[in-house]
Amino acid sequence: MAQVLVLPGDGIGPEIVAQAVKVLLALKEKHGLDIDLSEGLVGGASIDAHNTPLTEATLAQAQAADAVLLGAVGGPKWDGMAMSDRPEKGLLALRKGLNLFANLRPAILYPQLTHASTLKPEVVSGLDLLIVRELTGGIYFGQPRGVRTLENGERQGYNTLVYSESEIERIAHVAFKAAQKRSKRVCSIDKSNVLETTALWKEVVTRIAAQYPDVELSHMLVDNAAMQLVKAPKQFDVMLADNMFGDILSDEASMLTGSIGMLASASLNEHNKGMYEPSHGSAPDIAGKDLANPIATVLSAAMMLRYSLADTVNADRIEAAVGKVLDAGLRTGDIWTEGCTCVSTSQMGDAIAAAL
Ligand code: NAD
Predict the structure, then answer these.
(1) For residue 260, what pLDDT is reported?
(2) What's the pLDDT at 256?
(3) What is the pLDDT, as a whole number, of residue 251?
(4) Neighbours of 183 (CB within 10 A)
């Protein structure tokens, strides 16, 4: 039986994760999904209970599980804390502790939501792109980092953008392999005209591409990529990016799909063990109001079945159920348009579970 650790986290995390759990339990009941769920604390919830965003025990539980399903962490309550103690540190420690170096973020526009996108239908309809983001290296982890006081008394902040060849190689392999199962095109993102680290990124990705002759590789500067994503997003199949560029571009891509509440993500290690979470944050502005869109989290659970539990049939069932519910005109507030029925977080979860 597959062991899954559920970490709801903060803000809307518990509300949206409850819907994904509802869907998994419905699959267990209706279709015999062989899964065992246990729950733990992460982020602000763990700080409140244990004075740390991730306990050793929770990390050990995550390492022992087949997969982790996570909501979101953070919120104004913990914003004043030192950077090293904040809720987000729990997330980074999980990514590091599980060696989750590959972040897969699909941006798929459901045909039913074409009008929920802020872009023109002709620009986004049929959109299906995958952002492969490096997750355990780059400027978010590079040393040295900090804020120091200069001789003249002025404070200076500094971070380090660092990538070794092996880190670039392994994420490039993930992108090329993903492209082989799709439209066989990888666009690698860099800022090689300014940053030496990303010039090395470009060089290494080009070298790895030789092992995938069936995949077409192109390169794009990150500023142009940000522009092209809103100008002509359908030109992309797989976008390969480092940690920070991937973070920013994937949030931008999420808006093409109508709402960040639709965007699932998978973070994998080399053995396909993974952590699955929506791409959005803890949305403190709507937390506790039963307003959040749970679909990104439900679709993250589908990715979990597909990638870590090798259960394509049940993953397909979840995705089809989401499609059915959208066909029926049900929408949470973030994706609502004229003529649709506005539902709460829990009503959306109930409807998806019922549609399985
Ligand atoms: P956010 O993604 O939480 O929210 C951005 C906007 O999108 C808000 O208006 C929010 O209401 C809306 N939104 C997000 N998810 C939604 C959903 N499922 N349904 C409907 N609307 C949704 O980003 P933020 O406001 O920049 O950050 C809030 C907190 O989340 C911060 O503490 C931040 O550090 C944290 N955060 C956590 C993660 C994570 O856990 N992976 C990621 C990003 C931000």
Answers:
(1) 85
(2) 87
(3) 86
(4) 15
Residues of the chain with pLDDT under 50: none
Instruction: Establish whether 247 is a catalytic residue.
Output: yes
**Residue 19 in contact with ligand 1 by CB distance below 6 A:** no
Pick the CATH number of 128-256 from 3.20.20.100, 3.40.718.10, 3.30.420.40, 3.30.360.10: 3.40.718.10
CB 321 within 8 A of CB 302: no
Which CATH class, in words, describes the domain spanning 1-103+274-356?
alpha beta
Residue nearest to atom 34 of ligand 1 (CA): 74
| pTM for this entry | 0.88
| CB contact at 8 A, 86 and 35 | no
Q: Is 75 in the pocket of ligand 1 (CB under 6 A)?
A: yes
Pocket test for ligand 1, best of 70, 282, 286, 343 (most atoms within 8 A of CB): 282
Q: Determine whether 96 is an active site residue.
A: no
DSSP state of 11: T
**pLDDT of 116:** 80
Catalytic entry in 79, 223, 285, 327: 223
Q: Closest ligand 1 atom, CA of 88?
A: 34
Q: What are phi and psi of 34, to 5 degrees?
A: -95, 90
Mark whether 327 is an active-site residue: no
- Predicted pLDDT of residue 72: 98
pLDDT of residue 117: 84
| 134 in contact with ligand 1, CB cutoff 6 A | no
Return contacts of 58-64, CB within 8 angstroms, 24+ apart: 58/5, 58/7, 59/93, 59/94, 59/97, 61/5, 62/5, 62/7, 62/94, 62/97, 62/98, 62/275, 63/97, 63/98, 64/3
Q: What torsion do the CA atoms of 70, 76, 81, 86 make, to the nearest 10 degrees? A: 10
What per-residue confidence (pLDDT) applies to 234? 96
* Residue 285 bears catalytic tag: no
Domain with CATH 3.40.718.10 in the chain: 1-103+274-356, 128-256
